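New to this. Please check this fold:
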Amino acid sequence: MTPNPLVLVGASGWQHPAWRGGFYPEDMPDDWLLSYYNTQLQAVYLPAAVWQAASEAAWAQWLYDTRDGFYFVLEPAEAAPAAPASERVLLATPEWEAAHVWWLDEAPDLRALAQRIMQQATTGEPLFVFSRSGDSDLLEQANTLKQVMGY
């Protein structure tokens, strides 16, 4: 059994066109993107419209295509269907998000993020560091900071 990580870095969705030929190899098939994404990042934030539209078969494939320590964080939605029953699927209620999510695009200051990580370490609860825009440079910086800090 692996310990729960304190800091998990990811983006809103894994299909960013600007990532082709950079983050993703140019010729990678679309159905391999999530599998590759999960080797580089530890979580993905899914907007309500995305996860609500996913079939049970799609969810089963997504969970199969990702490792055990990878998380799907779901934007809450009104009249939403039930999220898949998995400990790796988390609903980001406003209260939960305030305690567990750092949005890189809104606060790209790495010193402030380092302070938040240290604060989060005192709680033992995970901190999800996400980029809404999929800024791969910010994501790489956040992953590096996490590693430098030993998380």
Remarks:
- The longest helix spans residues 110-123.
- The chain has one domain: 7-104+115-125.
- The beta strands are 7-12, 43-46, 71-74, 89-91, 101-103, 127-131.
